[in-house]
Design a protein that fits this description.
The complex is a heterodimer of chains A (318) and B (123). With 318 residues, chain A is of the alpha+beta class. In chain A, 57% of the residues lie in helices and 14% in strands. Classes of the chains: A alpha+beta (318), B alpha/beta (123).
Chain lengths: 318, 123
């Protein structure tokens, strides 16, 4: 299949943003054709002419043709490398330039709300808190887009350290429970005691947990139920979050982990969202050596699960 | 005893905010606006901890870190890199050069930065 794709010139041209005669596939065909012509011509020339001048002239011609094709292939490769480099530079520059003013805004508000709160009335505090939430959302969006760009380039940044997944999950859950307090959702927990530590990047796993937990809260109607469990299965720790929310339509189940995908009922229920959370989560978990999967029935609920390998040096192994 | 923190940061707004916050956390804070003066202040002030940005005028953060770790008098001072420049190469470079931690400004609240500082200084 890959071999056939190599010769789908129109598709290649579209993907690479070049004309058909500049695609690597087309240049390979020309190269092959030239080789055949050269071989035949050399055969005939050597057979029919004894004149060395003709032979030299034909060899020169061959060298020129091969040189022209070779140059265009190498120029093409350089162009691609250049584009790739520009993309990486853009990601680096964007990450720095966009995030610096954003962090300044967030820190200014934090300073106001903590060390300079005296003298602010309730309304002012509430407005500042709103700005804090919005700037946090903006930072999160920039970070998500950067992560997607990095995933596309196979350059997702993951730091490996051992950490306590149960403790992190509990902290994240406590935050979510207080944030969604007004929804009156019944949350139950089953976290096994003394679980061993796992290997991973705490900040990235925090992101995964935040995605899964906030999805469950966002897509569960008021008065609904959420159940979370954390247990060990062989050499992995499994996290599961089960809700009786809106679920995912059967025909869209295969697309859940796609980039920018949001299911029809998710959009109906909650307009805010980029469709990047699960795509990023899947990439993080898989690059850390774990798995992520789900079961869902429309209007019945969803259960999302992920596993991470137990840390080799964990001192709490049962 | 009050712990002394040196902040090397060129962005004025970020610098002011951090200085005020950390002073509110009862730290003594001194600040430098570029790498060169940051290095000079390190030797003069001998702080308990350094918060260091990477992209800095006159001398970049990695060079400052290298110089701090080269000097017998300043080698022991823990350095936390605080930047928005996030790449695997930079993180590895920072660890190799002896940084204690590499924090991304956009991902950390001031409260969390202060917590990290207290953790390093065992407060």
């Amino acid at each position: 299949m890959k071999f056939i794709n190599d010769f789908n010139l129109r598709k290649q041209a579209e993907e690479l943003g070049v004309s058909v005669w500049q695609t690597p596939g087309f240049l390979s065909i020309i190269m092959g054709f030239v080789s055949v012509v050269i071989m035949t011509a050399t055969y005939f020339v050597s057979k029919n002419y004894d004149n060395p001048q003709v032979l030299i002239a034909s060899e020169c011609l061959v060298v020129v043709v091969v040189l022209i094709i070779g140059t265009s292939i190498s120029r093409f490769v350089w162009q691609m490398a250049d584009l790739n480099r520009m993309k990486s530079e853009f990601v680096a520059v964007a990450s720095h330039q966009l995030r610096t003013p954003l962090s300044a805004i967030r820190w200014e508000i934090e300073l106001l709300l903590t060390k300079m709160k005296k003298g602010l009335d309730e309304k002012q505090v509430q407005k500042l808190e709103n700005i804090a939430i919005l700037s946090h959302r903006m930072t999160r969006l920039v970070n998500d887009l950067l992560d997607v760009a990095r995933i596309d380039q196979n350059k997702l940044i993951l730091r490996g350290q051992d950490f306590d997944l149960a403790k992190l999950a509990q902290e994240m859950l406590d935050e979510a429970i207080s944030a969604y307090e007004d929804r009156h959702i019944c949350v139950s927990l089953d976290i096994k005691k003394q679980l061993p530590t796992v290997v991973g990047d705490v900040d990235k796993i925090k992101l995964v947990l935040d995605n899964l937990i906030s999805n469950a809260f966002k897509y569960t109607t008021s008065g609904g139920k959420i159940h979370i469990s954390l247990f060990q299965k062989d050499k992995e720790i499994v996290f599961e979050i089960d809700d009786n929310g809106v679920g995912i339509p059967r025909e869209q189940i295969d697309r859940v982990f796609e980039k920018f995908f949001r299911s029809d009922n998710a959009i109906k229920y909650q307009t805010e969202g980029t469709g990047l959370g699960l795509y990023i989560s899947k990439n993080i978990i898989e690059q850390l050596g774990g798995h992520i999967w789900f079961q869902s029935i429309e209007n019945v609920g969803s259960k999302f699960s992920f596993s991470l390998p137990v840390a080799k040096n964990s001192n709490k192994l049962i | 005893m009050t712990k002394k923190i040196l902040l090397i940061e060129d962005e004025a707004e970020l610098r002011e905010t951090m200085v005020e916050y950390l002073m509110g956390e009862k730290f003594e804070v001194v600040a430098a606006i570029d790498g060169q003066s940051g290095l000079e202040m390190t030797q003069k002030e001998l702080p308990d901890l350094i918060l260091l940005d990477i992209i800095l005028p006159k001398m970049d953060g990695f060079t400052v870190l290298e110089e701090i770790k080269k000097n017998e008098k300043t080698r022991h001072i823990p350095v936390i890199l605080l930047t928005n420049l996030e790449s695997m190469e930079n993180i590895q470079k920072a660890i190799e050069k002896g940084a204690y931690a590499y924090l991304i400004k956009a991902d950390f609240k001031l409260e969390e930065v202060a917590k990290k500082i207290k953790e390093v200084l065992k407060m």
